Amino acid sequence: MTSSFCITSIVNTSVSDNKGTGVSIKAGTNAGGPVTATLDRVLFKNNGVNGVTADSTGGGSIRATISDSTFNFNGAIGVSAIGGPGGAVLIALMRDVVSNHPVDAHADGSVGLATITFQSCVLSTSSNFLESVGGGNLVSVGGNLLFDGFGGFTLTESPK
Amino acid sequence: MHRTGRVAFAIAFACTLSASPAAAASNHTAVSGLGNDANPCTVAQPCRTMQMAYSNTAVGGEIDVLDPTGYGALVITHAISIEGHGWASMNATATGNAITIKAGPNDAISLHGLILDGLGIGQAGIVVNSSAPSISGTASSAISRAVELRSI
Predict the structure, then answer these.
(1) How far, in Å, CA of B133 to CA of A33, rounded?
(2) Under an 8 A CB cutoff, do B114 and A13 touch?
């Protein structure tokens, strides 16, 4: 198997008040290949569109781990995963706060596998906590707190 | 005549800027609010913008931010580490992103301690595009390297 990959780590950083999306991860925009991203202690606040978007519709796959981070008051979605035909999107959220969005987390599996897992996260004060489209997976692996909003996980698993 | 002198000075200054920087890329470069892009981007003689420091940094090298101010936008095309100390501001423009990553195969990019504030007009904070030609690699090796990076 051949592939290319890009490995990115973003740590202790503030991403705020951008007109578009705070962090946009696109796999295979030009040639295909996985992107592995680690985001730790990042503040995504008041960006015009989404806090984070991971989109593999261009090909390739994306694996992102986002820990100890805060998503707040972004214009559309806190965390968005959009699966593509050539690769899955997997976002693992751990100890994150996601609040005050029209949608806190969105998984779109219409074209390819899209999964967001939540562990020890707080989701609050949003029109919709969790939104699944086309079979996108929103998986709780324990310890999450949801209050003041609507929506729920598509699956609950035990931590492994 | 006075006006002609000003124009001549401006042209000479522009030529100085374009002809300047360091001859060879360094493993460790620095930027400062008091820096100048005509400098070699060392700690003693830092550059002013992140893009110029990047251009003077070797593949896999590190850019260190010496003091708090804005350092402009940046396009990354190879492995790099940036230590922003929590005070380095890199702002998106009305037509561009703060940081655009177009990385090659196996490129490891670490961004630490940055403030990416679009001020309500900038595009995205960070856009990551995988862009390199295909090479051999596996998902498992990518994951293991990501864990190593996280320890910075």
Answers:
(1) 9
(2) yes
